[in-house]
Amino acid sequence: RYLCTMASSKINDKLDVESQTVMSSEQIQELSEISKKYAFLVKTSEQKDDLIKLLIKEKNILDGEKILLQKEHQAAVKDKENIVMRFAMVEKNLLDAKNQIENMEKKEKKYLKDTEALNNRIKTLKDEKQNINTLLEMKCQEQKNNVKDIDALKNQISSLETKCKWNSVKLKQEMETKLALEKELQEIKSLEICHKVETQENGQQKIDELKANQITLKHINSEQADKICFLEKQLEVACNEKASFKAQLAVCQGNIAKLESENKKQNETACELQIMLDDHILKVAELQSKSSEFETCRAALSIAQSTNKEHVLHIEQLKKIVDGHSKEIEVLRQSESELLALNEKLSFSNVVLQNEIALHQSKSLAISIENDSVKKSQVEYETNVQKLVTQINLDRKNLAEERLTMAKHVTEKNKECQTLKKQLDQALGDLDAMRKKNILIVKDLQREISTLQKNVKKESVNGENETTSTDDIHHPIFESPAGQKKQCFETDASSQKLIERIIRLQQANNRQAEKIDFLENHSDFLVSEVQKKSKIIQHYMMREQSSSCSSDKNKLYTGIIQTIYGNNKISDMNVDLVLEVNRKLQSVLEETILKNITLKENIDTLGLEIDHLTRQLVSFKKENR
């Protein structure tokens, strides 16, 4: 445009200049050519301007379309990315769902394994409880036996203490008797000094006798001293054995405590304790034999005392023996002090034993309390087990009752089906009889129609003859064709009615026969289905009876589940599976009940139609008559 405007301005300037000058022809031609070119250029410039505008518009449109396409492209890319993300999310969700399903299956398997392990553990715990109860009873019996043995040892210790006391009392009495003898000897010495003068002559004889008696008494005293030494040794041995018994009792008590702490080594330690107790019993028997010997010695001492009383008359002979007896008295005093020390030791050991016995009693009380707690827990477990057993029994009873009700329903339905079959057979027999009767009636009607047609033909022939014979006598000529027409019309109307009635009856019979065939087929189909389902239920009942007789777990998988699911074995009988089976059985029962209801309705309709047909046949027979 700018160039065109510039060119036009220049041209105008030139024209103005040339207009001012003298214009020649050639210049005029050139100007005309230039003007034409100018016009052409203006047109072309305008066309180009239009093209440029169009192109700018197209460019703007294309830019807008480009922007839109870019937006659409971006949206498509975003949609693609979103779709990819969604697909990835869906795949991820699927994988997560698969993983969750696998985890759930694993958890189910784990739970099943845990339940089986818990059941096995409960069984093992029951066995362990029984073993623990037996062991506790054995321990109680052993404890009672130990208490009895301790009481026996206490009694033996008390008897030994009483024997020691009795020996100490005896020794005191002997000391007193010795002191009395010394006093008597002193008195005798004083009397001897007084009677020396009087008895010098008889003294030598008495001295000889006393010497002889002294010798005999020395022998007797030596024997008695040996016996006393032997008895003292036995007493020391008995005291040592008593101390050893006390030590053994302490060892036994320690062993009892160890037995209470160590449950596994109870049987072996109990056997060892029983062996030790047997040894103790043998030792106690030996001690009893020794005590009997001691009693015999005591009796011998009593006899010796009686002899000493007899020897009181011979006091004069015991003067030389007093010195020896004084020494023996000192020895006996020493032994008495030793015995008193032993008594103190025995009393101390008795106190220790009593304390240990109290400790054992407290331990036995603790054990009894633990036993009570164990028994309570056992009772709780037993109650829980009984509750579970009762629940299982109730479930079994409910299942058995449901089975019985199912069996009763099945038997009732079988009976109803049998009765319906009988009724169908009777109805079919009645229908066959009615068909035969209808066929006979139709044949009779056809015969009657044929006879009627023959009679009509004969009457028509006879009528013609009569008309010819009686034209001249009775009637005029114009009356004969009207009578013939009336008779023919009446016969035709009656025959048409009969034919129409026969056709209607045949059509009704055909319809009823079709209905009867349909009902027969439907009843046969229903009977076959009922028979199949009754066979399934009978098979299930037989399997359930066999499974109730035998308590194997593998037989639980057979039965109705096998009939429904085929021969595919199921891993575990779950509650959901049992509920599904019950639902399917209920659905089967509902279907059978509905089919039985439809069968009854069809049979009722069949009976009504048979009654209607029989009434129609009866009415038809009456009309024919």
UniProtKB/TrEMBL annotation:
Q: Does the keyword Magnesium apply?
A: no
Give the GO biological process terms: vesicle cytoskeletal trafficking
Signal peptide positions on this chain: none
Query: What UniProt keywords apply to this chain's record, in alphabetical order?
Result: Coiled coil
**Annotated Gene Ontology cellular component terms:** trans-Golgi network
GO MF entry, a single one: small GTPase binding
Q: Which residues form a coiled coil?
A: 87-135, 242-269, 410-462
Q: Which superkingdom heads the taxonomic lineage of this protein's source?
A: Eukaryota
Protein name (Swiss-Prot/TrEMBL): Putative signal transducer
Organism of origin is: Culex tarsalis (Encephalitis mosquito)
